[in-house]
């Protein structure tokens, strides 16, 4: 199967929406069928002893790569603007593999304080056990990150906007420091997806996607992606190989299926999410809405400068109210499900408590905090569901 970039023969580069539709497939290598087939396989046969000794063919072992995996890897690399992509079995595995690619015992890494919580666990337990020390830093640190660098610092890990509290990082400022001090810059780019933040144009070396979220897009598979610039590619490829990281065939296909409609879905998540966020800002029960595309967001200007859109995930800080009242609101919702993953077509809500795990920054919300994912339902129906929720909350408030 040919390596496919959607603008191979074109005089001008195609827009990301066009790439999402065309990259990573070659119908005429596949009897004209629009979608590449799912190759399921462990053993790959060699026609001669000579070819076997020399591993002289495109695919040699199911774990290493299959045409199905290569199709999606090529497509994500093309859309996100990286040199290569490696797929992993989950987003978390993309995080752990990417960090392990660069560290050894005695090293030190810088980790953003509002990072996805399991990433924190990885640093505090597994990395600590391997003799790698982690310093958590304020997501708003910007170029001030330079003061935290030690002689043994190897990498800076960013996530923007950060999980649960949605602070936006000044990635270009951090990238300048990373480049000056010869550190690797990693970013968890799941919130924006490959479409709404262009990591490699802002100086990131390695971009991580929990493809489970918007790329798969239908809450029906676990998948991760690590996309790299040229200089990071061989380190990530080696770590993936040595750790035995291997995505499932069906999951890879579902990722490919999701990717084709990602631009269209994200545009709707952006529109509907922002509409609900604005409406929530006007509610008397709400203290603050944590959505980077709102003018009220403290880093709104950074978001406007660097991002091309917003996804459907944001936070809400309620005015002080009892846990019982919040439970009355959430338990009765009809359209919003309660669960931890997100990025599917459906709306979700969870309560969260970011006070419980932060170490570098003090997070003091005015009241209980919720995280919403606005799905692809009709916005008026979603608003009505939340409105009825607020009525239950007020009725149950002491
Ligand atoms: C969900 C998520 C992950 C982990 O992805 P899984 O596929 O669930 O393992 C990593 N980073 C962020 C920001 C996430 O939201």
Overall average pLDDT: 96
List the domain count as a whole number: 2
What's the CATH topology name of the largest domain? Aspartate Aminotransferase, domain 2
Give me the CATH architecture of the largest domain, please: 3-Layer(aba) Sandwich
Structure in a nutshell:
The chain is α/β, with parallel strands linked by helices.
Describe the model.
This protein has 398 residues and is α/β, with parallel strands linked by helices. The protein folds into two domains: 5-260, Aspartate Aminotransferase, domain 2; 262-397, Aspartate Aminotransferase, domain 1 (Alpha-Beta Complex). The protein is 36% helix and 14% strand. It contains 13 helices and eleven strands. The strands form two sheets. Strands 1-7-6-5-4-2-3 form a seven-stranded mixed sheet, with helices on both faces. The protein has a four-stranded antiparallel sheet with strand order 8-9-11-10, covered by helices on one side. It binds pyridoxal-5'-phosphate. Pyridoxal-5'-phosphate (PLP) binds at residues 90-92, 95, 116, 159, 163, 188, 190, 210, 212-213, 222, 224, 341.
